[in-house]
Amino acid sequence: MIVARGSLYTRLALRVSLVIAASAAVLLAAIWYTTQMAANEAYDRLLTGNALQIAENTWLQGDSVTVDVPVAAFMLTPGVRTFYTVLDPQGRSIAGDPDFKPPIPWNRLADGPQLFDGVYQNAEVRIAVLGRRLALDHPHPWAVVAVAQTKTARLSFAKSLSGNAAIVIAVMAILT
Q1: pTM of the model
Q2: Which among 48, 51, 90, 49 is positioned nearest to 69, based on CA atoms?
Q3: Cα–Cα distances in Å, from 133 out to 84, 112, 142, 168?
Q4: Smallest Cα–Cα separation from 46: which of 166, 161, 147, 162?
Q5: pLDDT digit string (tens) for 19-76?
Q6: How far is residue 32's CA from residue 38's CA, in Å, rounded to a whole number?
Q7: Is the alpha carbon torsion for 113, 117, 120, 123 positive or negative?
Q8: Rg of the chain's alpha carbons, rounded to an integer?
């Protein structure tokens, strides 16, 4: 004899609800991942643009490297702390924060901007490092620009985007 544990409607509603809940969880995870990627890409472009603006205003004058840092390089989102340094070919800071010393990938500077995560002043930062080749006879003929931004703005941007999507998913799940 088969014993029913509930009505057909109850069992079907429970199974459909589980499928919807699992689908919503997968969608939320995918949305969180893609919004993080979108925020990182957008903020990385800003960060790289800032470093490029500084590099464009860096030149060799006689035997020394000179830089004229444009103010526009630091017009960023409120709440974002920005750090930068410009290094001469010997690795000495000639502009910016002399205490900011991210690792410099000297052998990859010719490949273009290098982006990586780090920690500076107890804050998680995203760092862009790029080189400006100088007319020098030196093992590293590069003036190096390193710019870092705190990651709080990109994280709150991603949270905002994914939060809006989560509301839509929740409403659709309830309606379904």
Answers
A1: 0.80
A2: 51
A3: 18, 11, 5, 50
A4: 147
A5: 988 998 999 999 999 999 999 999 999 999 999 999 999 998 888 899 998 887 776 6
A6: 10
A7: positive
A8: 25
